[in-house]
Amino acid sequence: MEGYTFVKKSKIIFEWKIPDASSFLIKESSENEILKSSDFTSGSKLDDLWRLELWLNNEHNLITEDFEEDLDLNNYLSISLCKLHDYNINTKYSFWILTDKQEKISFYSQFVDAENDSGEDWGVDEFVEKQKLLDNKAEFLPNDTLTIQVEIIIDDDALTIPVENLSNSSPSQLGQDLGNLYENKENCDITIIVGNTRFKAHKLILSVRSPVLAAAFTHDMIEKKSNEVSIPDIDPEIFEKVLRYIYTGQVSDQEVVAARLLEAADKYQLLSLKKLCEEALMRSSNRGNIVEIVALADRHSAQNLKDYAIKCIIADATNVMKTPEFGELERTNPSLALELLRKYTFSQINNTTVKEESRSLNPDFILQDISRIL
């Protein structure tokens, strides 16, 4: 399926508070003791399920290749993120300990590619030295409580926003015949000058297809009493494609020049060509160009394309609204940027469950959501 495609991500920060932590840290035992958190999920559609495990005597050896042989691992706590579901997901996880001032220490982060994931748990053997925690109890163990947080970000699923078929661009016999007429240049009665390039064409065919060209022919030719018309502000390459479309109803390489061709189609009121360009831009849209596309659609009143681009931006707002292109849009076209923010806000309200309705309708919370994205 062609269209704007992006990977939705689910994220959770799970906090695990371990009371009476010093008693576990100073306790000596010949057997490894394991503390286990409650099970938790990121809320993904994939129904992922996780648990944290803290190994007190460090005999787990999660990543033995990463530590030196003479290091006494019994002096360290090891931590692991246990995968309780039976399928693989692209996952980024990060561990840290939260201090009394809400600062993060012993930060560890890792990305696990689903294709290369063969384990049931991931983590780090040398998470934190026990003595370091005991020597700094006020900072690391306030109220004798060890607070561990883990952030999990997973690829939820790939979402493609489909492209609506706006036009019928299949070739016809008439288009083929007119294409031959254009190629052979037989019985041409007008010359169009674009830059340093001269195009021979048939005034009647161009006038029927484009009211703008028809008006230009009438006005310029009456004034100059000639069969030549100069057209400014368009590239010869683009005008050649416009001419070819006027004759054949077809256009080549439209994916490459769709933006410039849409501008020309709008200028010469070639509505069917404009729809073709809108489709091409929809198919080629991505996170890197979607802001430019919505701005282009807004400038040239390409409503189908604009609606599609807005739908894409709202669906992927957390990423798109952080791009430099969106920042530039706020500077150059603040009214359009405001329109996008408003539509995003209303989409969030409409998607809110009854349980969360009172929170999301509060303007303060709405502003918080927008500021978090930006």
TrEMBL record:
Domain annotation MATH: ranges: 11-152
Record domain BTB: where: 188-255
Pathways involved: Protein modification; protein ubiquitination
Keyword annotations: Nucleus, Ubl conjugation pathway
Compartment annotation: Nucleus
Family: Belongs to the Tdpoz family.
Protein name per its UniProtKB record: Uncharacterized protein
Annotated source species: Cotesia glomerata (Lepidopteran parasitic wasp)
